Amino acid sequence: MSQPLRVGVAGLGTVGASVIRLLHRKADALEQRTGRRIIVQGVCALDRQRERGLPPGERTWFDDPVALARSPDIDLFVELIGGDEGPARAAVEAALACGHSVVTANKALLAKHGLALAALAEANHVALAFEASVAGGIPIVKTLREGLAGDSIERVYGILNGTCNYILTRMEREELPFDVCLAEAQRLGYAEADPSFDIGGFDTAHKLAILACLAFGVAIDASAVHVEGIRSITLADIRWAAELGYRIKLLGVAQKTALGVELRVHPTMTPISSSIADVMGVTNAITIDADAIHELTLIGPGAGGAATASAVVADIADIAKGVRSPPFGIPTGALERAPRAPMQRHEGGYYIRLSVFDRPGAFAAIAGRMAERQISLESIVQRSPPGERDLASGGSVPVVLITAATTETLIREALAAVVSDGYVAERPQVVRIERE
Amino acid sequence: MSQPLRVGVAGLGTVGASVIRLLHRKADALEQRTGRRIIVQGVCALDRQRERGLPPGERTWFDDPVALARSPDIDLFVELIGGDEGPARAAVEAALACGHSVVTANKALLAKHGLALAALAEANHVALAFEASVAGGIPIVKTLREGLAGDSIERVYGILNGTCNYILTRMEREELPFDVCLAEAQRLGYAEADPSFDIGGFDTAHKLAILACLAFGVAIDASAVHVEGIRSITLADIRWAAELGYRIKLLGVAQKTALGVELRVHPTMTPISSSIADVMGVTNAITIDADAIHELTLIGPGAGGAATASAVVADIADIAKGVRSPPFGIPTGALERAPRAPMQRHEGGYYIRLSVFDRPGAFAAIAGRMAERQISLESIVQRSPPGERDLASGGSVPVVLITAATTETLIREALAAVVSDGYVAERPQVVRIERE
Fold first, then answer.
1. Within 10 A of B360 (CB to CB), how many other CB atoms are there?
2. Which CATH code of 3.40.50.720, 3.30.830.10, 3.40.50.1110, 3.40.50.170 fits the domain covering B5-133?
3. Tens digit of each residue's pLDDT (9 = 90 or more) over A185-194
4. CATH 3.30.360.10 residue ranges in chain A?
5. Contacts within 8 Å (CB) and 24+ apart, A51-59
6. pLDDT digits 0-9 by tens, A101-154
7. What is the domain class of A141-301 according to CATH?
8. Using a CB-CB distance cutoff of 8 angstroms, which residues of chain B are in contact with residue A295?
9. Residue of B nearest to A142 (CA)
10. Where in chain B is the domain with CATH 3.40.50.720?
11. Tens place of pLDDT per residue across chain B (436 aa)
């Protein structure tokens, strides 16, 4: 039997306390799996007095996470503090620099400093593992890094934020407007008091940047992600989606194109027949399109203390077994600073909802603006969707267009022309379509 | 840079040729990932002359797989011969015995000799990897063995045979009887000339026995699996399922119960809202219920040369990186010869379709036979389902019962009594219900 693996856990919130309970409850099973006893040697949190329901065990208390990270009594440092700077970053850097492996669930830290931290881990021949940072309990990091090591990935996309998916699900099921569903999500603890990070799409963008690095070997760059949130989605859009065979989801999409890797987060029309469209509530889901396997979808809990803790413990077990591979699959030095495909060049179908003044010629003028730019229309509908009460309001009628694949630039140009023609009463609503 | 990993591939069918092509095409990427060059040093197949479209490369030809398995010029032996005895078994044993790691896609070999082979691998400190043996390109072995190492699994169930799912999908979509869909599956190459191994549920049982070993740490024993195939499923059952909010799937289910691990393969009513119910055609899917993650579902290709080869190459990459854990997650000696829960004690809901003679009192007598055994009925319907043409044939009418949870023994007793009462014209049809 090898030496025990001594663990230090910084951050004793829901996830941290769950990690310590899981390590305690599964101690014998983990010893069988890894060949080593896993011991929580030290812990660190802000408030020493708080009751956390931790199992019995002698654990040294540290007030300073950096001191725990550097402690010669640990082999592995678990960072569950959060935040992309401050104590989280300082402690992870300190741990790696003195030769301790690190497990973290901190997507913000990875999105901002992941490459530098990975390089530090490689230089010190230790592990940096982060399964819990993306999609909680879904083993997507392991799947991309190891399970598809022999395949060529073309596209990774999915529902990576449970708050947004909960809101969209409620809007559809209860026919409630966005603001009511957001308030409900806040009441249930699914959304923060300031929800802009979630509903603005930024949380999804962080996770997408990490997945793109694993899938395509491109350096993490969250600032290269085109981000749109879900605040503009109305009940009318959700009803139209259903009518047209789609469901609206906030997707993160990373895709290989001839121009480079395209990274985008936006509300998306997903075909109702797709596995992703069926994912409701706070559940997350990720689909991988690859050359050999074609399509693989993983559906599971994207958050929650126990699920996230399960992913942290799986990482700890891998490290206990001695698994050491570059954190992002290939050495940091080999990650490409590849060009990012600009969003203006994005090609796809579009859903467009217009509020058109009920005047002769409006219809023909709109269709003409599309035709000028060779935008093919798959369908054009001029009526209210089922369930819509205000069939015409203020002398305008809804017109919904579904386009064949075209580019973002052409759509924007065509709609600018439609607006300046004076036929529409409101800003056009545009939702991209993601085909299977 | 470490020494190259020298691979021998025995069996050059669709999967074997795909493995060699993938290793060639991804050679540089795999070297980045694993830190080693992976070289196919030797190959072996029955017919040396056949054109297989292999990439260029100097590969020593072996006529005897055992000789390749023992060759001092290889480090890792890939077994793609097939069969649970004969050359496949002999070659895998020879490779492990002389200290070569093994990758195999052979579920039949593992279901029969997996424990002995795993023990041999452990004794010789080499790897035995088999991701491709269950559900082709879906990384279910890695997920159970590593990704959920810190969790407690309660149930694993899924669609593990693409042929059966293709047939059930065609029956539903085209409203065609079983035999026509089976013939179509054979014409398309999805089903063998002798389809009994697939449609009888035995292929699913082999895979389920392997998954149960990984999930619960119980010794593999395919003979402990209760197996029923899909031949008895009629169009009427498929229509009733839809009417009642279910879809019929052939599931393999491994579940922890108070009496031990229950292992069963049978046609199953799955709730139409479940992720599994939506999986159509030859696609496979597996859901894992566990304590911490609650529910995780993986959906992807269960077969096909390229998808299976992708799983084989991922295993080779892990071994190249030096990953060595017990083949079934925990040491073979620690696997339990746990009691298996007998099928008679299975508890669940049941769908029962009866063809009842149109006589006074029939309905009351049937309900009485159920009540005698405390079987609660959730619904009882006496009419034809939508689309059913022969509303009553030969003086009998269809009656469909959905029961609340009860035991297999009580259902069998109740139905035996109903039959001996003389009210039914045909053998009752029974399909178990699997709740989410």
1. 7
2. 3.40.50.720
3. 999 988 888 8
4. 141-301
5. A52/A12, A52/A17, A53/A17, A53/A21, A54/A12, A54/A17, A54/A20, A54/A21, A55/A20, A55/A21, A55/A24, A55/A25, A57/A20, A57/A24
6. 999 999 999 999 999 999 999 999 999 999 999 999 999 999 999 999 999 999
7. alpha beta
8. 300-301
9. B147
10. 5-133
11. 589 999 999 999 999 999 999 999 999 999 999 999 999 999 999 988 898 889 988 999 999 999 999 999 999 999 999 999 999 999 999 999 999 999 999 999 999 999 999 999 999 999 999 999 999 999 999 999 999 999 999 999 999 999 999 999 999 999 999 999 999 999 988 888 889 999 999 999 999 999 999 999 999 999 999 999 999 999 999 999 999 999 999 999 999 999 999 999 999 999 998 989 999 999 999 999 999 999 999 999 998 899 999 999 999 999 999 988 899 999 999 998 777 888 889 999 999 999 999 888 888 899 999 999 999 999 888 876 555 554 445 678 899 999 999 999 999 999 999 999 999 999 999 999 998 7
Contacts of B148 in chain A (CB under 8 A): 139, 310, 314
Contacts of B331 in chain A (CB under 8 A): 32
Residue B233 has φ and ψ, to the nearest 5°, of: -75, 125
Q: Among all residues of chain A, which has the CA nearest to that of B298? A: A298
Closest residue in A to B149 (Cα) is: A314
Kindly report, as residue ranges, where domains of CATH 3.30.70.260 are found in chain B: 346-433
Q: Which of residues 323-362 of A touch B (CB under 8 A)?
A: 323-326, 329-331, 334
B150/A296 CB distance under 8 A: no
Classified as helix, coil or strand, B117 is helix
Residues with Cβ < 8 Å from B254, sequence gap 6 or more? B155, B156, B157, B208, B211, B212, B215, B216, B261, B262, B263
CA R_g for chain A? 24
pTM of the model: 0.95
Active site residues per annotation of A:
207
Q: How far is A202 from chain B (nearest CA, A)?
A: 25
The distance of B73 to chain A (nearest Cα, Å) reads: 23
Say which residues have a Cβ less than 8 Å from residue A420's Cβ, sequence separation at least 6.
none
Q: How far is B436 from chain A (nearest CA, A)?
A: 13
Helix (H, G, I), strand (E, B) or coil at B110: helix
Task: Say if A32 is an interface residue toward chain B (CB within 8 Å).
Answer: yes
| Helical spans, DSSP H, in B175-249 | 178-187, 196-199, 202-216, 235-243
Q: What is the CATH topology of the domain spanning B149-301?
A: Dihydrodipicolinate Reductase; domain 2 (3.30.360)
CATH 3.30.70.260 fits B346-433, yes or no: yes
Radius of gyration, CA atoms only, chain B: 24
> CB–CB of B313 and A29 under 8 A?
no
Task: Report CB contact under 8 Å: B26, A152.
Answer: yes
> For residue A300, which residues of chain B lie inside 8 Å, CB to CB?
293-297
Note whether A150 contacts B30, CB cutoff 8 Å.
yes
B5 touches chain A (CB under 8 A): no
A24 CB near a chain B CB, below 8 Å? no
This complex has an ipTM of: 0.94
Range(s) of chain B covered by CATH 3.30.360.10: 149-301
User: Min CA distance, A355 vs chain B (Å)?
Assistant: 35
